[in-house]
Amino acid sequence: MNFKEFETPEKLRGGYYTPHDLATFLVRWIEKEAPSRVLEPSCGDGVFLDALGSRNFAEPVLGFELDEIEAKKAKDRAASVGLSDVNIQASDFLGWALKAMETKSERFDAVIGNPPFIRYQYLPPLFQDRAQAIFEKLGCKFTKHTNAWVSFILASFELLRPGGRLAMVVPAEIIHVMHAQSLRSYLGENARRLVVVDPEELWFEGTLQGAVLLMAEKKRRKSDYAEGLGIYPVRGRDFLSLDPEDVFNGTAPINGKTVEGKWTRALLAPSSRDLLDELIEAKVARRFDDIAQVDVGIVTGANKFFLVQDEIVSRFKLQKWAHPMFGRSEHCPGVVYDEDQHQANAATGKPTNFIWFQDASVEKTAAGRRYIQQGENENLHTRYKCRIRKVWYSVPSVYSTEVGMLKRSHDTPRLILNKIGAYTTDTAYRIRAKEGTADQLVYGFLNGLTALSAELEGRHYGGGVLELVPSEIEKLLLPPPSKVKPRVEELDKAVRTMPMDAVLSLQTKRVLGDMGLSKRDQSELLSGWSRLRNRRHRVSSEAA
Description:
Oligomer: single chain
Number of strands: 22
Domain Type II methyltransferase M.Eco57I C-terminal: 261-512
EC number: 2.1.1.72
Number of helices: 23
GO molecular function, one term: methyltransferase activity
Organism: Yoonia phaeophyticola
Radius of gyration: 26 Å
Family: Belongs to the N(4)/N(6)-methyltransferase family.
Strand content: 15-25%
Shape: globular
Strand order of the largest sheet: 3-2-1-4-5-7-6-8
Distance between the termini: 32 Å
């Protein structure tokens, strides 16, 4: 977790401003409907107002910018480009929007802008309450993992007149993060058509945050047919010379599962989506939850105290409380964690020991008292997870499983056969097989089908690392374990020595090919995985 005091002022204020050419493209789209009133809920320094002025826009514009200095910049910029009917309010948009939604006194033909990217926990309490109230007002499920931009889009879209248009620069994570699911569902239900312009490159310098253009047209009547979502991939800036209306109307939309859940499915070719549905229908693909059980790893509350190198164990004489553990990708270069791997980790100074004080009896020993005092000198007993325990240094829910899985991965997730009963921290998951053996589960997990479903179900942030939480793991697609002939040692060697693309190709042939899946379908799955993996890594499809 990132702490507020370590973040930049720009990040805390959500102040990453839109390039002028992108703002102009979105303005060109909304003006196709000749809007008589426009809302800009997060003006910043006024780049969208500048774009409106460059188009000789003459209708009323209402804007909001909480920062008074930036609000003045926006007003000055609007005046400099000849916008005569602009009202910029240096106040909170969400508070104003709640009142407008309650009284139904304000409606707009178009909304433009770049909503602030601010985590919920970084918002002042009043703004947190307002963000949550927007969700509740619209009957949307709220989570405290959300970000300010989600509430901004919800409120903005609600304030559109029927048939109105919303054109915004939004985080690329709108496609896949769980905290945006309420927004995706709301837009899917209330928009006639949705289009996301999805770039291969990063548009904002100085940040790893990917961004997309969201173009959404509101239904004229509730009963109108929702065409669904289309994603328009772009490379470079050449698309900006196109007519945005052609981009909006010419992008093929898809509906159903895509709009109901994450939008990642829309990034796939239709043939890949159809194949996945066929495999599920034919029961070639099973859900992880039917095959295995997943649970979080051990939550220590102070990993540096409880997860230590051999040198710490020796210095503090902690041998009787030290147990083998793993929790990072560097601990597990293959798919097997055994004594040899454990000793290799220890020899290179990695933290391979979990210190487990089961109860307060440890304080009867000099070594135990000394180490606990060391932790209290560092105020570890005041940390939330530690202080809520009856005995702060006694970690609960300590058990190991025969299979583990790291929370994050670079290319694709893999299961780890835990041969020595090592413990895992909350950077990994504990897995139990419901069907078949642990060997079958570990071996069968690494294939093109499962790798592709991990891209569809997971999420990623700056840097392109894939992350899965238990509810997403439970939805992963796996081949039935009973049909898997495991060769775990061979797979372990392959993962350690071969590129993951080659490993997946080999495993897809061995696991899915042996089950009767055609070479064409194997290739389709691998192509879909590569397409989504490369997008996550910001690798050009031409370079891949």
